[in-house]
Every structure is written in structure tokens, then in C-alpha cells.
Design goal:
Length: 332
């Protein structure tokens, strides 16, 4: 039997997971376990480049893990772990810092964006975290790294580091390929359909653990337009708000845009928006209930992240030992 290809992905627990994360990415992750050996981690070390409240960070990290499992990521089939539990991330991160050029780091758009947002805290970690991200990836020698548009630059940098390091020391790291996932739904903000749904604009963002009545309120307030003749039709250019709602409705019900147009023909937004809200509520209900149940079972959650750390550590350590030997460190 062929060995499965390795895939790795991490999300920062810097806020609550939302509908955009689920429909755009996490929903499709569960199916990958058949094809790939998957590693998914909570990137808690990355979150502290921006100041965090410690208790909130701990809570969100465990909530994210519970939500991953509730969204269908079976810990028996996927390696789920917390980044800070694997010291090799920081150790390899330092080594790769020394093989990443200052100019490369200063060109990173996320550094520019975050520096502008957090002028009072432009720290060294904010500048060098792409080297830690490269370590996150390369420790597990993955074949593929799923990336959205906003992370492509980091995978390119990782590939540059691999080329540079392997060029000096031989074949140490596997060259990771960016994996452009089969298109998940691109979910835009309910109050700003011209930009992606984001936790930074909570009034237009639906969270996985949100109460049904709060979700419904947000859908009823979602931006549409003043078209009364033929309101529910798919026209992303002229009707971006409606197109976004149709995208969401299609993603959670499996209906085509044509079927949705027929379903709401002759009806206004007063019927359409609550229907989308109801469909989303029913999609998220089992996830919310299961995540709540898992969070209450602290022993189970702990057993998952400890088993995940053990498996991840084993793989990470093999890579780190190889790297330490190549750069000339005395073996422990």
C-alpha cells in the first residue's frame, strides 16, 4: 500500500471560529483524512505577536480544538495538536531565522499590515514569525500545505528557505507544494459583502458557537439592496449582498443558484433572509452542541491533545535531529 502524502495546516486561536472558516476550509478538511496523513494544529505561539489576555487564549485554544472535532476531524484519523506543546517548533524556528534574509521578511505584507494596526507593539516576533511558520511546516515534511490567497507569500518564503538550506546541506527538507483546496464557499461579511467574513467585524460575522437567535438577527440585518421586482437572483456585480446570501444558502443546503431563485421567486428579502438564517442555524446546531459536549469532557480533550502532541513530537524530532546534525550542533 502506498504511503499517504502528508498535509498540514494551522489556525491561530486569536478569535472565535466563524461560518467563513467552516464553509471555506474546515468543512472540507474531514474528507481529506481518506487521502492524506493530516496534521492540524492550534497556532498559539503565533498569536502572541499581538498582546493576548492569557485566560482567553487558553480558553480559545481548547474551544478551537473541540470545534475541530465537532466539525468532523476525527482525532483517530488526524493528528490534532497545540503548537506550544511541541518545543521543536521554536527550536527549528530559531535555526531557520538564520537562513531567512532580512529583506525577505521586510517584504511580507502581513508584517506591514499588522505593524500599521499595532503601532505600539511592533515586536521582533511580528517581524520574524514567517521563519517560525516555515518551521511549523517543514518539521512534518509535508507534501502539501493548504493555503488561501493571504498565506501564499509565506509558503513561497518557506520554499525559498528549503532551496537555500538544501543547497548548503543536501536533501534535508521536502519541498512543500501549496495546495489550493477544491473551492470551499467564499463567505463575505453580512454587513460588508465586498470583504471576507471576519471576526474583526463581529456584526457581520456568524460564529460557530453563536446562539440561534443572535444568528437570525444578523441575517435579518444583512445588507441586500432595494430591488423589489426580481430580488432573489444571482448577480455578484450588481447585487453582492444577495449573491453572498445565495452562496451561503447554497453551501449549507446543496441547492443550485437556479433552484434558490425558483424557491424565492416573487418573494421579497423578508422571506429570503430568515430562510438563510434558519438553514445556517440548522447546519451549525450539531457542531455547537457537540463542541459544548466535548468542552465539558476535560479528560477527553486532554487525551486528544496529549496523543496529538506525542505523535507530532515524534515526527518533529526526527526532522530537528537531522537539521541539528547538518548545522554542526553536538548531539544531545
Amino acid at each position: 500500500m502506498d504511503e499517504k502524502k502528508v498535509m498540514l495546516s494551522g489556525i491561530q486561536p486569536s478569535g472565535e471560529l466563524h461560518l467563513g472558516n467552516y464553509l471555506g476550509a474546515i468543512k472540507n478538511w474531514a474528507a481529506r483524512a481518506e487521502e492524506f496523513d493530516c496534521y492540524y494544529f492550534m497556532a498559539d505561539m503565533h498569536t502572541i505577536t499581538v498582546r493576548q489576555t492569557p485566560a482567553d487564549l487558553r480558553r480559545r485554544t481548547l474551544e478551537q480544538l473541540a470545534q475541530y472535532i465537532a466539525c468532523g476531524l476525527d482525532p483517530e484519523q488526524n493528528t490534532l495538536f497545540i503548537q506550544s506543546h511541541i518545543p521543536q517548533h521554536a527550536e527549528l524556528g530559531w535555526v531557520l531565522n538564520c537562513y531567512t534574509m532580512f529583506g525577505e521578511l521586510s517584504r511580507m505584507t502581513q508584517f506591514k499590515d499588522k505593524s500599521a494596526k499595532h503601532k505600539d507593539n511592533i515586536n521582533g516576533g511580528l517581524f520574524t514569525y514567517p521563519a517560525l511558520m516555515a518551521a511549523d511546516i517543514l518539521l512534518y515534511q509535508p507534501d502539501f500545505v493548504p493555503v488561501g490567497e493571504d498565506q501564499k507569500q509565506h509558503v513561497e518564503l518557506t520554499r525559498n528557505i528549503v532551496q537555500r538550506f538544501n543547497g548548503i546541506y543536501g536533501d534535508v527538507f521536502k519541498m512543500p507544494e501549496p495546495y489550493i483546496p477544491k473551492a470551499g464557499a467564499r463567505v463575505m461579511g453580512l454587513t460588508s459583502p465586498d470583504s471576507k467574513m471576519s471576526k474583526s467585524t463581529p456584526e457581520g460575522c456568524v460564529f460557530l458557537m453563536e446562539a440561534p437567535e443572535s444568528i437570525q438577527k444578523k441575517f435579518k440585518r444583512a445588507v441586500t439592496d432595494s430591488d423589489t421586482v426580481d430580488p432573489v437572483r444571482y448577480d455578484p456585480i450588481n447585487k453582492p449582498g444577495v449573491a453572498n446570501l445565495m452562496n451561503i444558502y447554497s453551501a449549507v443546503t446543496g441547492k443550485s443558484f437556479h433552484e434558490i431563485e425558483a424557491e424565492f421567486a416573487g418573494q421579497g428579502y423578508g422571506r429570503f433572509k430568515p430562510a438563510v438564517g434558519d438553514a445556517v442555524i440548522e447546519t451549525l446546531r450539531p457542531i455547537r452542541e457537540e463542541a459544548t459536549r466535548i468542552l465539558a469532557d476535560k479528560a477527553y480533550l486532554e487525551s486528544v491533545y496529549k496523543a496529538g502532541a506525542e505523535k507530532a513530537s515524534y515526527t518533529a524530532n526526527k526532522t530537528l535531529r537531522k537539521v541539528y546534525k547538518k548545522v554542526g550542533f553536538v548531539p544531545r
